[in-house]
Amino acid sequence: MTRFMHRYIRVVDAVNYRVGRVAMYGIFVIMGILLISSVNKTFFTPTLWTLEMAQFAMVAYYVLGGPYSIQLGSNVRMDLLYGEWSLRKKAWVDLMTVFFLIFYLLVLLYGAISSTAYSFGYWGTEPFSFFSGLITGTEEIGHMERSSSAWRPYLWPIKFVMIIGIFLMLLQCISELLKDVLRLKGEEI
Known about the structure:
By secondary structure, this protein is an all-alpha fold. Helices cover 74% and strands 0% of the residues. Residues 30-181 form the Tripartite ATP-independent periplasmic transporters DctQ component domain.
């Protein structure tokens, strides 16, 4: 079991490390979009797509970079008491609190999957059966959801990115849970 835990931690950390390192360059994408917006507003005709595209890029940057942030321990914490605790006490507290985060992420993931199904034109209450029906050919895509802005982009791509990011965050939280268990057992990670 311990070997499985070490392998899971190694694989998930490696995936989230690579995704996070790529996602961190998203800030330059956001800056480029906003620069185009500023130049166009100042010298040319203002563009319709730049502000909303910058928002989409920011969502992708934040959601895909979150697991990397958790992995590095650079997420926001209340260090008033936590910073002075021993590694063992931190592991116990983290072990208890990570279950709340995992529950929250599971609810968030279900909501993201439901919202993505809705953006594909599914009006029912079973989003998982909708996606399995898309794969098997028993369901078909309906009227796709679009933004209400003047640009009117489809919303499913950013919602799909949110599913990926939330799923990676869930995997990283389970990795952190396993790290805490191994710390409490006195093993090296």
